[in-house]
Write a structure and sequence with these properties.
Jelly Rolls; 8 strands; 4-stranded antiparallel β-sheet; alpha+beta
Length: 153
């Protein structure tokens, strides 16, 4: 397995060529505690999967202080605006402890879905299973978005 990709269920069952393709698009992200990973309103450039550490998602209403929406731990996925087509992140994420994650660029997600749909679907399915319970039907919403927005040959 390429050195960039950890041995986790997300990457199980792929052959060497598929691992190589995935290794090229996933990158490691690390930050110390109390680091803002992204701000509410930033362009949704990446989707993240936590490998180590903890973080919080906070929403800032226009008329009040930030509100912690949820606490994230190992295995959680955040930054779904990069997948579901948002123009900006709808909340902020801050590390609570030292954070290590895998991340994938928004454009690489769409390229994977269009150029290698079988791999892309497996990856999105597996990532969607890790979504926090705050999105009851996120799995269905993500699949619906992908099918609606996938380029037709």
């Amino acid at each position: 397995m390429p050195e960039n990709l950890p041995v986790i269920p997300l990457f199980e069952g792929f052959d060497a060529g598929q691992y190589s393709a995935l290794n090229a698009i996933f990158e490691r992200y690390k930050c110390p505690p109390n680091t803002t990973v992204f701000q509410q309103g930033d362009p949704p450039d990446f989707l993240y999967l936590i490998l180590k550490g903890r973080a919080v998602i906070a929403y800032k209403p226009y008329d009040g202080p930030p509100i912690v929406i949820t606490r994230l731990k190992v295995g959680d996925v955040f930054g779904w605006s990069a997948v579901i087509g948002g123009k900006k992140y709808t909340s902020s994420v801050m590390s609570v402890s030292e954070l290590e994650a895998l991340r994938i660029r928004r454009q690489d997600i769409f390229d994977l879905l269009n150029n290698s749909p079988e791999i892309g679907k497996i990856i999105i399915d597996r990532l969607a299973l890790n979504v926090s319970p705050r999105w009851k039907n996120a799995h269905e919403q993500i699949h619906q978005f992908i099918e609606t927005n996938r380029r037709q040959p």
